[in-house]
Write a structure and sequence with these properties.
The chain contains 17 helices and 30 strands. The protein is of the alpha+beta class. The longest helix is centred in the last third of the chain and has 23 residues. The radius of gyration is 51 Å and the shape is flat. The two termini are 67 Å apart. About 6% of the residues have low confidence.
Length: 800
């Protein structure tokens, strides 16, 4: 029978056994393609669900209707539920064989993941080819405790216009002090800041140029600075008047110099000591001593006379005659209080605007409630903020959360500033102030600086000495005053004495004596018997001069206990016949047994060659003939062969700058080939090295070796500058500032020994300057470049 003639009796669906609400992947479902009259088809339940909406032109609607204009491929539902740890992918799927996310098509991908322990996380995958694994980058993370973490930057649409709005980095930069003198963090004013700005320290300032100060009044006698005008106008005239009109005290009771009053002086002045006197400490008066009577009510260190005591007793015992019209035994009553404008304790009736302390919020006691307390308790007179979406007015405040707090707690402007400063390492405050900070006089004084108006210096302040006869507001130094006094003639004191001073043997002995007397008159030659002796702590030292005839050495000999130690020969004993013959200078030492050790030091007169001799090696100092164009050579020899030469001048004719003045350090090979190691020019003061400078860097020389941390951040914190050295004005240079580098990389900053340079001493009164070991910065730069390379590789990987 043909199949199309078969008629089946189909039961109602309810007549079939129940599948208990579960469809299996192996189940088949019967379909009728095209509706009634269409052919019947079978399809697996899994394929039915997976393909039914694949090409749908209408959206999938679960529990709610989609808008009539909604396009296909969308799903509308009242809610979406997933199992624990469910996630949502965009342009991504989980590849079962590989066990990791893959792209569905070219382009970026995203995933929203709800982890039961970590919280909500949003990931982003950079654009890539189809069917390639996805390198996820975490963009947003909300922890179960409410902490929000953003993987990249947070961009704000505007700067804040209300106190509780978030602040952008640009707003913070524009409204805060980002750095002070190149430093960040909690900055305090340093004395170097004042010096760099042209200021002077309060303690021992060293002024440059022509410092000025107000000229004091003629009668001024204080610690104010005396200008040259003050000295010229007052001091010189005053001193001249003293010299012309007032005799000086030459001696006091037969003593001169620094005289101190003694008991003997007082006793001698009081009739030779027959009259007793009272000492300043604990005097024991006798007789009837008197003193001025102090004014009534005096209460100080004056002597109280009997008159002062009697007056005070009288005043204290007079008493009150009446009190509020009453006399006798008077008792204070309420009427006295109210009459005087007071309030009684029971039911007082205050007038005017009485005030009282405002109680703490929540206080529930008999304390008076002020209007401030009532307004605070009622929320400002009845104006409350709703819990849902409150709209505050005025300047609402809230407690500032601790740094790194990440909750729903309100973030105040203080919290935002703290967090931004922690990230950007800006200046948090300047001397305790924030906002638009201006340097004030108190900042300078607190850091030990001197203000321009009436500075009060301490220590030993110095200043340039004005030219003689200067008459202006320039500060007058002690050297200027001394010179001005000397200019008017006369010696103020001599060895502590004034008046008609006569030179004595004691004066000579105080300046290096004893001295020998002249023999043969004051204008005759000095004749000394040989030998003369100067006492020493042990034995004696004999000095004697030999014969002075031509060709004979002129010797100064030093002996100890009769044994020669040194001989200085001014001449070598040969007859002088020009050149250096008979004129060599030598310094000879003697051994303990008196044996001569010749040639310790020899100097020839004609060419001023200097020879120094020791056992080994020989060191020779030569100066060529002629001052201009000659070179001063220090040579080191071993067995007659040159090993080192130090040239102080290169032999060229000096014509300004460094011409003819180049310093050079040279070495010699075994074949006596010259090799220049380094050289230096005098003007400008620069040093050049011919070959590389090698620093000891062997691992065996080091310990506690660690990698450099945060190298890139440290490099970013450094500031390269252009500058001119104060010792070389007009010449532009580039480099770093040692004080700034010390804040970031203190390992490369060292203190330099005091320099004997007048300009640098004025800039650094302490004598200690800071220097940078630029070579050591190479290691920091290497690690910083490696850090940049790592970041660049990560960026390139995300873009591929």
């Amino acid at each position: 029978m043909p199949a199309d003639d078969l008629v089946l009796n189909v039961r109602q669906i309810a007549g079939y056994p129940s599948a208990n609400g579960v469809a299996l992947a192996t189940d088949d479902v019967l379909l009728q393609r095209g509706g009634l009259g269409g052919p019947y088809l079978a399809i697996a339940a899994e394929n039915l669900v997976g393909t039914a909406m694949q090409t749908a032109v209408t959206p999938l609607q679960v529990g709610m209707l989609a808008p009539p204009d909604a396009s296909g491929g969308q799903m509308f539902a009242q809610g979406m539920s997933t199992a624990m740890g469910g996630f949502w992918h965009q342009n991504a799927y989980f590849n079962a064989p590989q066990g990791e996310p893959y792209r569905i098509a070219n382009g970026p991908a995203a995933v929203l993941d709800g982890d039961p322990t970590l919280g909500w996380r949003f990931y982003w995958g950079a654009a890539g080819g189809a069917l390639t694994p996805i390198d996820w980058m975490m963009q947003l993370f909300i922890s179960p405790t409410g902490y929000l973490t953003v993987g990249e930057q947070v961009l704000l649409a505007r700067d804040p216009n209300a106190p509780m709005e978030a602040a952008t980095a640009g707003w913070v930069q524009a409204n805060t002090v980002t750095s002070f003198m190149g430093r960040t963090g909690a900055v305090n004013l340093w004395i170097n800041d004042i010096l760099a700005a042209g200021g002077a320290p309060l303690f021992s300032p060293v002024f440059g140029g022509c410092p000025r100060a107000p000229t004091p009044d003629e009668s001024s006698n204080s610690s104010r600075i005396a200008t040259t005008a003050f000295v010229q106008r007052n001091a010189v005239i005053y001193i001249q008047n003293l010299l012309d009109c007032h005799p000086f005290v030459f001696t006091f009771n037969g003593r001169s110099g620094e005289v101190v009053l003694t008991d003997a002086d007082i006793e001698a002045a009081l009739s030779g000591g027959t009259i007793a006197y009272a000492p300043l400490a604990s005097p024991n008066f006798s007789g009837v001593p008197t003193a001025p009577t102090p004014p009534p009510t005096s209460s100080d260190g004056q002597i109280a006379t009997t008159a002062f005591v009697m007056n005070a007793v009288t005043d204290s015992t007079t008493g009150v005659v009446t009190f509020n019209g009453r006399s006798g035994v008077v008792v204070l009553n309420a009427a006295d209080l109210t009459a005087a404008g007071g309030a009684i304790l029971a039911s007082p009736a205050f007038t005017g605007v009485p005030t009282a302390p405002t109680a703490a919020p929540g206080n529930n006691s008999t304390q008076i409630a002020t209007t401030a307390y009532v307004m605070a308790a009622t929320g400002g007179g009845g104006s409350f903020a709703p819990l849902n979406s409150p709209a505050f007015t005025g300047v609402p405040t809230a407690p500032t959360a601790a740094t790194a707090t990440n909750t729903t707690q309100l973030a105040t402007t203080a919290f935002v500033m703290n967090e931004i400063n922690a990230v950007n390492a800006g200046v948090v405050s300047f001397n305790g102030r924030t906002g638009v900070v201006n340097l004030i006089a108190n900042d300078i004084s607190a850091a030990g600086g001197a203000i321009l108006a009436s500075p009060a210096f301490t220590g030993v302040p110095t200043a340039p000495t004005a030219a003689p006869a200067t008459n202006s507001t320039q500060i007058a130094t002690t050297a200027y005053v001394t010179s001005a006094i000397s200019a008017i003639g006369g010696v103020s004191t001599f060895n502590g004495r004034q008046g008609a001073v006569v030179l004595t043997t004691a004066d000579l002995n105080t300046v290096g004596g004893p001295f020998l007397p002249l023999v043969g008159g004051s204008t005759g030659p000095l004749t000394v018997s040989s030998p003369f002796t100067v006492s020493a702590s042990t034995g004696s030292v004999n000095l004697y001069m030999g014969a002075a005839a031509s060709g004979q050495p002129r010797n100064l000999n030093a002996s100890l206990n009769g044994v020669l130690r040194w001989t200085m020969q001014l001449g070598n004993g040969a007859p002088e016949s020009g050149g250096n013959v008979g004129s060599d200078f030598s310094l000879v030492s003697f051994a303990d047994n008196g044996t001569t050790q010749l040639g310790s030091l020899v100097v020839t007169r004609a060419n001023v060659n200097v020879g120094l001799s020791s056992n080994s090696p020989t060191v020779t100092l030569n100066k060529n003939s002629g001052t201009n164009g000659g070179s001063i050579l220090i040579g080191g020899q071993t067995a007659g062969a040159q090993r080192w030469s130090l040239f102080l001048g290169n032999g060229g004719t000096e014509s300004g700058n460094s011409a003819g003045s180049i310093y050079a350090l040279q070495s010699f090979t075994d074949q006596q080939v010259v090799q220049t190691c380094c050289s230096a020019t005098r003007n400008p003061n620069q040093m050049a090295f011919t070959n590389a400078i090698v620093n000891g860097s062997d691992a065996r020389m080091k310990e506690n070796i660690r990698p450099i941390a945060d190298a890139l951040a440290k490099v970013m914190a450094l500031r390269g500058v252009t500058f001119n050295r104060i010792t070389r004005p007009g010449h532009d240079e580039i480099g770093l500032i040692a004080q700034e580098v010390r804040e970031v990389v203190p390992e490369v900053v060292e203190e330099m020994p005091p320099l004997d340079d007048a300009i640098l001493r004025r800039a650094a009164p302490s004598g200690v300057l800071l220097g940078i070991s630029y070579g050591e910065l190479t290691a920091l730069l290497i690690e910083a470049i490696k850090g940049l390379a790592t970041k660049l590789e990560a960026v390139e990987a995300r873009m591929t």
